[in-house]
Specification:
heterodimer, A: alpha/beta, Rossmann fold, six-stranded mixed beta sheet, four-stranded antiparallel beta sheet, 36% helix, B: mainly alpha, binds adenosine-5'-triphosphate, binds magnesium ion
Chain lengths: 234, 308
């Protein structure tokens, strides 16, 4: 479904991604783990066009994403929950969700999707008319995730959905990723919480200072000695 | 009713009149700033474009036997065209390649360019703009109120209500707010950022054209620099209200208009003639400085940069 090959990305003179290659198949949950500054966010940003690549291939369902126009990514069925949430702070929760469905025109579908999001996150229903800037960090994370689901995506890219959340909320978010998985939605998950990320994923990649250092079945990586030492705190 | 109260009411109405002109111009500054974080120094000159457009389209319409309001529509269209062109030709390339500072300098250059271009084409001498509208004077109670003043206030308020509706309720308006709040997230939602920027310039310049219509109804003269001081005061209004905030620009414009009008009328008496009405501009700018010292983000502005 998504294929990245030989991707190189620079910030000025900083070579942030070196020849990254990864694939995400239909219906999979794939985790991308790595330390701070490894290039996880940069990878997602490059896939959804927020950052330009120097060279390499980004192919999504046979289409060259590097040639796509900035704002057309979501119309292809790819939603991105950015790092740091990026909710529209001055808009209400409901308006934020409506923005998530910006590419849809059918009011009935938008309604249905919103009901689905409220089912996932009942907390958002309670705060529907509240402006997003006044939500707690965890609630904003729910909103950012819910907003991404409003467009009926086939694949969701999530950048550290567990950041700054209480253990309870982290469990909540991971439960939702499982539900998405069960509903056939593909997920590319970037996480610092490697244990959670590996336990939920089918496959995983380990990013180390801009290069993929390891990859394989998540269950294998979970048992790998090097991974344990570096990322699982064992 | 005592004469003092009548005078006071008339001064307040005057303040509301000029204040709604400032507000419409301030909206242009604030919307463009909201969306691309650029102080569009050429915005004041869009008023000048509007007033020359009125000056030349009105006689044409009248000689063709058409109603005068068509001239207004044409003036708005011309202003919108100029605004979009300035954005496309001057600002967009700089935004892609340059820094914020180079964009700012481009905006100043654009302002000087428009003023000098107008001087070359139309000459430096003021040209009279024909009567655009005359509204009969009204007697409210015992107060005789200038009809044009009332009409100007009505036009200003209606335009502001319409703009609020557009921004709050319509799809395009919401996409504009989204880009202005978080450009990156807006793109992820599928919003075409460049088209939204174009639309913002179009609306801002259109508002400037309406402002020049309202202004010329009271001061019917077009000069190449008509927009300089007007633009500066409207900019002050936008900053006072909180740059980037649409309600802020409206409020800031009205406040500046009232302060200017009331200080002109009363400051001489209040200070026993020490400060004369000639100082009203200084008072306007003085208020800006005081407000910014107390609340740097403006009256309705958000405290940007404190929260990450
Ligand atoms: N806008 C930028 N300008 C310059 N360098 C950047 C920029 N964004 C990221 N970098 C650099 O690129 C590298 C990768 O950053 P990235 O944000 O992708 O890391 P990350 O894996 O997401 O880290 P974290 O877990 O802390 O979010 C880092 O060295 C970072 O300093
Ligand atoms: Mg990151």
């Amino acid at each position: 479904m998504l294929r990245v090959e030989g991707l190189n990305v620079f910030y000025g003179a900083i070579h942030a991604l070196h020849d990254i290659s990864l694939t995400v198949n239909d219906g999979e949950v794939v985790s991308l783990i790595g330390a701070n500054g490894a290039g996880k966010t940069t990878t997602l940003h490059t896939i959804t066009h927020l950052k330009e690549a120097q060279s390499g291939i980004i192919e999504y369902n046979g289409k060259d994403l590097r040639k796509a126009k900035d704002n057309t990514i979501i119309s292809m069925g790819m939603a991105h929950v950015p790092e740091g949430r990026h909710v529209f702070r001055d808009m209400t929760v409901q308006e934020n969700l409506e923005m998530g469905a910006f590419i849809l025109n059918d009011k009935a579908v938008i309604r249905k999707n919103m009901d689905m999001v409220f089912e996932y996150f009942p907390r958002l229903l309670e705060r529907r008319r509240q402006s997003a800037g006044t939500l707690s960090g965890g609630e904003q994370q729910m909103l950012a995730t819910g907003r991404a689901l409003m467009s009926n995506p086939k694949i969701v890219l999530m950048d550290e959905p567990s950041m700054g959340l209480s253990p309870l909320l982290v469990k909540e978010i991971f439960k939702i990723i499982k539900t998405l998985h069960a509903n056939g939605i593909t997920v590319l998950l970037v996480e610092q919480n490697a244990k959670m990320a590996l336990s939920i994923a089918d496959r995983a990649y380990v990013l180390e200072t801009g290069s993929i250092s390891m990859s394989g079945k998540a269950s294998d990586l979970l048992k790998d000695e090097n991974v344990k030492k570096a990322y699982l705190g064992a | 009713m005592p004469d003092q109260i009548v005078t006071f009411i008339l001064q307040v109405l005057n303040g509301l009149k000029i204040g709604s002109v400032y507000a419409l111009v301030a909206l242009g500054y604030t919307m463009v700033y909201g969306i691309i974080k650029l102080i569009n120094f050429a915005h004041g000159d869009f008023i000048m474009v509007g007033s020359y457009a009125l000056l030349y389209t009105m006689p044409i319409m009248v000689s063709l036997g058409m109603p005068a309001w068509i001239a207004v529509v044409m003036a708005i269209a011309i202003c919108v065209l100029v605004g979009i062109t300035v954005e496309k030709v001057a600002y967009k390339p700089v935004r892609k390649k340059g820094t914020n500072m180079s964009a700012l300098i481009t905006a100043i250059a654009m302002s000087l360019f428009l003023e000098n271009l107008a001087q070359t084409i139309f000459g430096a001498a003021p040209k009279p703009v024909g009567t655009i509208f005359t509204f009969p004077d009204m007697i409210i109670g015992k107060v005789k109120v200038n009809g044009n003043t009332i009409l100007t206030i009505i036009i200003g308020v209606s335009v502001m209500i319409a703009l609020q509706f557009f921004v709050r309720k319509t799809r395009l308006g919401k996409s504009m707010r989204a880009v202005s709040e978080d450009g990156q997230a807006a793109i992820l939602m599928g919003i075409n950022k460049n088209r939204t920027i174009t639309m913002t310039f179009a609306i801002g310049s259109g508002l400037a054209a309406v402002a020049s219509l309202m202004y010329c109804a009271s001061y019917p003269q077009a000069t190449p620099t008509i927009g300089a001081m007007l633009g500066l005061k409207a900019f002050v209004a936008a900053v006072l209200g909180g740059i980037g905030s649409i309600p802020g620009a409206m409020l800031g414009g009205i406040v500046i208009g009232l302060v200017e009008s009331l200080s002109k009328a009363y400051i001489g008496d209040l200070t026993g003639g020490v400060i004369t009405s000639a100082f009203s501009d200084a008072i306007v700018f003085g208020i800006l400085i005081v407000v910014l010292l107390v609340k740097p983000s403006g009256i309705l502005g958000k405290n940007i940069g404190e929260k990450v």
